[in-house]
């Protein structure tokens, strides 16, 4: 049995070599917004939000992944985060417009 019902990993990777990357400031903003949503929905202890290094999804815009379903999202920002939260954290569904299909 896993410790958390949902575990979200948000990329905060930065690069200085010209390759694309998600970015630390944007990643921290996403993390803080997700943590706020978790608290507001009384899910602390059930849903864990963590920063991550490169998730190897760099060409899909800002990336995150939600386990245990292993749902990958790209082009995530604060404006579309609520859609991911409502679909994948609250309803166990996939928000198709931002889903990464490798
Ligand atoms: S830098 Fe974010 S997935 Fe690679």
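^ structure tokens above, recovered residues below v
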């Amino acid at each position: 049995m896993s410790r958390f019902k949902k575990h979200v990993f948000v990329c905060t990777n930065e690069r200085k070599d010209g390759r694309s990357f998600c970015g630390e400031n944007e990643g921290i903003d996403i993390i803080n917004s997700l943590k706020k949503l978790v608290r507001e929905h009384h899910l602390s202890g059930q849903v864990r939000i963590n920063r991550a290094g490169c998730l190897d999804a760099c060409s899909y815009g800002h990336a995150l992944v939600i386990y245990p379903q292993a749902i990958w999202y790209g082009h995530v920002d604060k404006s579309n985060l609520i859609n991911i939260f409502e679909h994948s954290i609250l309803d166990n569904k996939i928000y198709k417009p931002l889903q990464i299909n490798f």
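DSSP finds two helices and four strands in the chain.
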